[in-house]
Design brief:
Layout: E1 4-8, H1 13-25, E2 29-34, E3 54-58, H2 64-74, E4 78-81, H3 88-93, H4 96-118, H5 122-127, E5 129-135, H6 160-179, E6 183-188, E7 190-192, H7 201-210, E8 215-218, E9 224-229, H8 230-243, E10 249-252, E11 257-259, H9 260-274, E12 289-292, H10 307-313, H11 321-334, H12 336-344
Parallel strand pairs: 1-2, 1-4, 2-3, 4-5, 5-6, 6-10, 7-9, 8-12
Antiparallel strand pairs: 9-11
Keywords: Lyase, NAD
EC number: 4.2.1.46
GO molecular function: dTDP-glucose 4,6-dehydratase activity
Length: 355
């Protein structure tokens, strides 16, 4: 593949990690296309925003005319599609946005990509790639303690979020089968790391602990997730879009299965070491752990078999859970201004098209 990549959702958590990796570690030109919903934060891209190889478009992937303009102006050699609503709790409370963005938006983007691709010269057309980034949640959950999700595991989504992502996966594959669009699909495990929006488990626990607030744990905290450091994931995604086999699916995991309660306890112990000056009234961070009612349809265990991407593309995670989680806690301690502006909403001030 050649030199221009269009990243949708590039102001989000994983998307911004991909954009930073592309600008800082590769020669590619990058166009970041993001609607800038609540989860989009351009401040996560401060280190690359002034690069001559980076440009930003505030565009909704449901806006076909705007997508056509971006494709015509930027003329990408590949698309990395990360734009999505992604928080399970929000999908339970209000599934409509998930249907609109994750399903209708993916359809609209696929059609814009297909129109653009059909107009390319033969050699450029052959090199073009559409890489759809998805989640392991489309597979449902695992019953056995030794079972793993593989690329051929049947889909059995449990939440409106995972059902909408499963639908988008099927659309992407159908556009290859029906129209020949050269696609790749990746399904990843739970990501964590710097610039993670505070509604997600790990940053939520860190920031609540620093504020002396309760640390909510669903049910008994026995749910198991495979944790993947976001910068490892970004490296994997770039390997797939540049070197992956068209039509293939690659599962990306961190080889770090942890119970949710274990994750929260690990965070508390790291904060004891790295932030010993606790809020008033807090003796130990673990004392803040509070068990709350489990959410509906909560999957018990996710675990990824990532042997295919290791075997075919040579990718393996560089971070263990222990090294990655320590880096993550330290990042939140060192970057208080970033997350304080998220908590206050100041990060949304001054955006294009927003008052």
């Amino acid at each position: 593949m050649s030199s221009r990549i269009l990243v949708t959702g590039g102001a989000g958590f994983i998307g911004s990690a991909v954009v930073r990796h592309l600008i800082l570690n590769t020669p590619y030109e990058v166009a970041n296309l993001d609607k800038l919903t609540y989860a989009g934060n351009l401040e996560s891209l401060a280190t690359v925003a002034d690069s001559p190889r980076y440009r930003f478009y505030q565009v909704d992937i449901c806006d076909a005319a705007a997508l056509d303009r971006v494709f015509a102006e930027f003329r990408p050699d590949g698309v990395m599609h990360l734009a999505a609503e992604s928080h399970v709790d929000r999908s339970i409370d209000g599934p409509s946005d998930f249907i609109q963005t994750n399903i209708v938006g993916t359809y609209t983007l696929l059609e814009a990509a297909r129109r653009y691709w059909n107009g390319l010269a033969p050699k450029v057309k052959e090199a073009f790639r559409f890489h759809h980034i998805s989640t392991d949640e489309v597979y449902g959950d695992l019953e056995g303690t030794d079972d793993l999700f593989t690329e051929t595991t049947p889909y059995a989504p449990s939440s409106p979020y995972s059902a909408s992502k499963a639908s988008s996966d099927h659309l992407v594959r159908a556009w290859q089968r029906t129209y020949g669009l050269p696609v790749l699909v990746t399904n990843c495990s739970n990501n964590y790391g710097p610039f993670h929006f505070p509604e997600k488990l790990i940053p939520h626990v860190i920031l609540n602990a620093l504020a002396g607030k309760p640390l909510p744990v669903y049910g008994d905290g026995a749910q198991i997730r495979d944790w993947l450091y976001v910068e490892d994931h970004a490296r994997a995604l770039v390997e797939v879009v540049t070197r992956g086999q068209v039509g293939e699916t690659y599962n990306i995991g961190g080889h770090n299965e942890k119970r949710n309660l274990e994750v929260v306890e690990t965070l508390c112990d790291l904060l004891e070491e790295l932030a010993p000056n606790k809020p008033a009234g807090v003796t130990q961070y673990r004392d803040l752990i509070t068990f709350v009612r489990d959410r509906p349809g909560h999957d018990l265990r996710y675990a990824i078999d990532a042997s295919k991407i290791a075997r075919e593309l040579g990718w393996v995670p560089q971070e263990t859970f222990e090294s990655g989680i320590r880096k993550t806690v330290q990042w939140y301690l060192d970057n208080r201004q970033w997350w304080q502006r998220v908590l206050t909403g100041d990060y949304r001030l001054g955006r294009l098209g927003e008052s």
